Amino acid sequence: MSNKQKFPHLVGSKWTAREETFGWRHFQVVNRKNEGEWVFAELESSCGNPPVRFWLNAKVLKDRRRWFPGWKTLEEIREHDRLELERRERAGAART
Fold first, then answer.
1. Contact present, 42 and 53 (Cβ < 8 Å)
2. Are strands 38-45 and 53-57 parallel, antiparallel or unpaired?
3. Helix boundaries (H) for 1-96
């Protein structure tokens, strides 16, 4: 049985925070740390001098209510929210 690595492409990946985080939205993973069953990512702000760095549980990056993969504009975030709201409304209407 193989040991499949969790988050194999984590380092170097780019992320957009839905809300400003330490004053910024765009981050890149610069390091990873495995601690038992947990994987942590060190994120660094793409802008700012000096850049902001912090660690978080890599699972949090899968939460689309908090993070988007890649670097997104505010317009892209708003469009995603609009489409998600429409999808939920259609799903609710289909149940009634």
1. yes
2. antiparallel
3. 74-95
**Which tokens belong to 39?**
């994987």
DSSP characters over 20-33: EETTEEEEEEEEEE
Phi, psi of 47 (to 5 degrees): -115, 175
The residue whose two tokens read 């702000």 is 45
Query: 43: burial class by Cβ within 10 Å (0-12, 13-18, 19+)?
Result: buried
**Which residues lie below 8 Å from residue 52, measured CB to CB, with a gap of 6+?**
21, 22, 23, 24, 44, 45
pLDDT in tens, 6-54: 787 899 999 999 999 999 999 999 999 999 999 999 999 998 889 999 9
Q: Do 58 and 13 touch, CB atoms closer than 8 A? A: no
**Beta bridge partners of residue 70, listed in sequence order:** none
What's the pTM value of the predicted model, to 2 decimals?
0.81
